[in-house]
Amino acid sequence: MKASFNINNSVSELELNPNETLLNALRNNGFTEVKCGCNEGECGACLVLLKDKPVNSCQVLAMSVQNKKIKTVKGIGTLHNPNLIQKIFASTGADQCGFCSPGMVVAAYSLLKENSSPSNEEIVEALDGNLCRCTGYVKIIEAVKRSAIILQENKVEAE
Amino acid sequence: MLSENLKWYFPSSVSQAVELIQKPGVILHAGGTRILKTQSKNIVGLVDVGNLKLNYIKFKNNSFHIGSATTFNDVIKFSKENNCLKMLGAALSQAASTPLRNRITVGGSLKDFPLWSNLYAPLITIDAKIEIRGDKSGIYSVEEYVSDGIIKSKHIIKEIIVPENENIIWKVKRFALLKFEYPLFNIAIAFKMNGKIIEDAKLVITGVKNRFKRFKKAEKFLTGQKLSNNLSDEIEKFIEPKFVSDYKYSASYKETVAKVYFNELLSEIIRENL
Fold first, then answer.
1. What ipTM was predicted for this assembly?
2. DSSP secondary structure, B114-153, as one string
């Protein structure tokens, strides 16, 4: 069956089964920037923004979010047109294998949209649903802090 | 695995939703996290509550009214600015992770009393009520809702009602080895205070035999007492939670941990408020 979704500010008709998760529906229809990690809502690799809030797309039944605003990491920035947060993740060394990075960027983006100068605790809380098995989180937290500082210096939102 | 022939319904009113869930194998869908965890093959239809306008927090008639489709994170955010809901906010903050709390709803965590629910213990201690629509429509205390067979009726939870009370001191704690694990049990303690005198005490644990336990002897003992350091030791004899052994933990292990947690929480609550 086909259903209509609002993904990255454009309407997309996705082919899907009624029992399918948003993660599978997205990946099976070309949105492979959304990664499948644990498939149990624990690792955060599949994070997307649903109505501007981060959710585990593996824990969302796709049919329930038809026509709702969905943003994947590519809606935040792309390889050739990266968002400031993505640039800072790269320059800080906050990604190693890179598998968790899309989810981390989505979580960081969501946090900085809501809170332009988060404390360490607030950063840790915002990233509490994202697991990384390479970096040990130090660089990731540093990247979020640096992003916040640069966004504030430039007086811009996390766009 | 959920059926590939799953049928979705998107009612626009609570009464339509109630009608739809009368069909065998048709259940409510809010955040969907529990449905995806259980993956029951017996589910033939899902009634999405997204259009029922049950995502709200209002204050009226000296109570907070929290719609059943309100997510944990929305409650947590709201609770930061409202002292009466801070206990609830603290309990819900302990659940899962930020992205999951953006999906887990109040109603989904109450329906059918999942043993890991972080909601029941604090709700009982603060005398919250649950409004349901269905075969047994009405407003019930949480204990009535659980104990009187109402929970098994075909119904939809409309909202929870939390009375305003500024003079409550409280503590909540869950037991799980990892943050992502479902808790084995949840504990909530609340004292309604008049100066340093305990006017009313509630001590609740969930995850035990018969779903939850209120320690009424301890509550009776504490009522009317002045806060003092020795209270936590004095009520130890009244705290006797009964658990069932499972593949991971024996009942006696859980009982011991629960007793220690109660003692710690009581000591903390007293220390912080003396």
1. 0.95
2. -TT-SSHHHHHHTT-EEEEEETT-EEEEHHHHHHTSGGGS
